[in-house]
């Protein structure tokens, strides 16, 4: 609401090199202002200055599933960064751009431990990764994955959700809401 838009998936430097994840950019809005102030946004997330902050700070509450068994300071919550998906790599997204049903349009998806990333890292989920999760045997929740939708609600998706429905959920303006009418 402050900026009237959603953050990009990541920021970049003048040469286009990724610097910081959306997870870092939203820290002030998830009651993590003190942590945010320690991070130098002009340097990459893994620059020695920022790496010190990363190593001494646990991921913020809500950035890690309590059932996650993986590397420390990693997250399994990744933004949906795909053609026609919610997050744009380096640009902000206006809410008005989402013309599909916001209650069924994916914003963030939980991945398996093998695809977890350091929580400050500007790495997220593309369509191929999201579609591959339905065959994953290493999700934190054996038969489902957490998902956050554009309307702000979180819920579990079955790993049995078919590909056509997942693609419809990834799309923000695909005019494909009818695909989801019979439920996920």
Structure notes:
The strands form three sheets. A four-stranded antiparallel β-sheet has the order 4-5-7-8, with no helix packed on it. The model has no long low-confidence stretch (mean pLDDT 89). The two termini are 29 Å apart. It has helices at 22-25, 33-38, 48-56, 127-132, 163-170, and strands spanning 10-12, 18-21, 74-75, 77-79, 106-110, 117-118, 144-149, 154-158. With 184 residues, it is of the alpha+beta class. A hairpin with a 5-residue loop joins β1 and β2 (18-21).
- Total helices: the number is 5
Per DSSP, what share of the residues sits in E-state strands of 2 or more residues?
A: 15-25%
- Major sheet characteristics: 4 strands, antiparallel
Terminal Cα span: 29 Å
Q: What secondary-structure arrangement, pairings included, does this model have?
A:
Blueprint: E1 10-12, E2 18-21, H1 22-25, H2 33-38, H3 48-56, E3 74-75, E4 77-79, E5 106-110, E6 117-118, H4 127-132, E7 144-149, E8 154-158, H5 163-170
Antiparallel strand pairs: 1-2, 3-6, 4-5, 5-7, 7-8
Relevant terms:
alpha+beta, two-stranded antiparallel sheet, 4-stranded antiparallel β-sheet, 18% helix, 184 residues
């Amino acid at each position: 609401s402050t900026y009237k838009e959603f953050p990009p998936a990541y920021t970049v430097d003048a040469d286009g090199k990724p610097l910081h994840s959306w997870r870092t950019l939203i820290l002030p809005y998830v009651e993590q202002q003190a942590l945010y102030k320690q991070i130098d946004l002009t340097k990459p997330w893994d620059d020695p200055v920022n790496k010190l902050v990363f190593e001494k700070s646990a991921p913020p509450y809500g950035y890690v599933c309590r059932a996650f068994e993986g590397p420390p300071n990693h997250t399994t919550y990744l933004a949906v960064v795909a053609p026609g998906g919610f997050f744009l790599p380096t640009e902000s997204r206006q809410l008005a751009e989402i013309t599909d049903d916001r209650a069924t349009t994916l914003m963030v998806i939980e991945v398996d431990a093998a695809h977890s990333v350091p929580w400050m890292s500007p790495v997220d989920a593309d369509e191929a990764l999201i579609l591959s999760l339905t065959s994953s045997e290493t999700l934190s929740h054996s038969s489902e994955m957490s998902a956050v939708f554009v309307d702000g609600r979180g819920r579990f998706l079955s790993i049995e959700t078919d590909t056509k429905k997942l693609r419809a959920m990834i799309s923000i303006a695909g005019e494909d809401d009818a695909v989801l009418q019979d439920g996920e």
